[in-house]
Amino acid sequence: MSSEREVLTYEMFGAASRELAQEVADSGFVPDMILSIARGGLALGMGLGYALGVKNLSVINVEFYTGVDQRLDVPIMLPPTPARVDLSGLKVLIADDVADTGRTLELVHEFCEGHVAEARTVVIYEKPQSVIKPDYAGRRTEQWIDFPWSVLPPVVPGALAH
């Protein structure tokens, strides 16, 4: 892995989330719900919700990364997960911070499949090795990304950042 990193500031994040919302709107997709993948997709989901006028926001928690470029063998969903009946027939926009391997997005997309009218994916960053091509991606990079919410260590002693 290169020591160079992609750096995203809060200001850049604000502009990227607004640009992504405009891209979704311009595509004609009108989501009934934004399903944010916690933790990285929470801020994007909120920003998209406001920009697209979508109040139906939900969260799904998936654990995959355990550190910088360290991950579990497969992503796993952690409880509580949304009830599929609550997704039934909806147009869902799945939001995450990055499609690195793409396996987290793939897992959540498969979770929705067959239960929703349509599911599309949106990320701030897409990496070339992602197994899923997001429908909407703000930027593309091969580097590790320093997100403004995860670049500093936790303020609580002993807490894990990743």
Main attributes?
single chain, alpha/beta, Rossmann fold, six-stranded mixed sheet, 4 helices, 8 strands
Task: Note down, in words, how this protein is organized.
The structure is a single chain. The protein has 162 residues and is of the alpha/beta class. It has a single domain (5-146), classed as Rossmann fold (3-Layer(aba) Sandwich). Helix content is 27%, strand content 34%. The protein has a six-stranded mixed beta sheet, with helices on both faces. Strand 3 (57-67) and strand 4 (70-78) form a beta hairpin. The longest helix is centred in the first third of the chain and has 18 residues, at 10-27. The protein is globular. The two termini are 18 Å apart. It comes from Nocardioides glacieisoli. Keywords: Glycosyltransferase, Transferase.
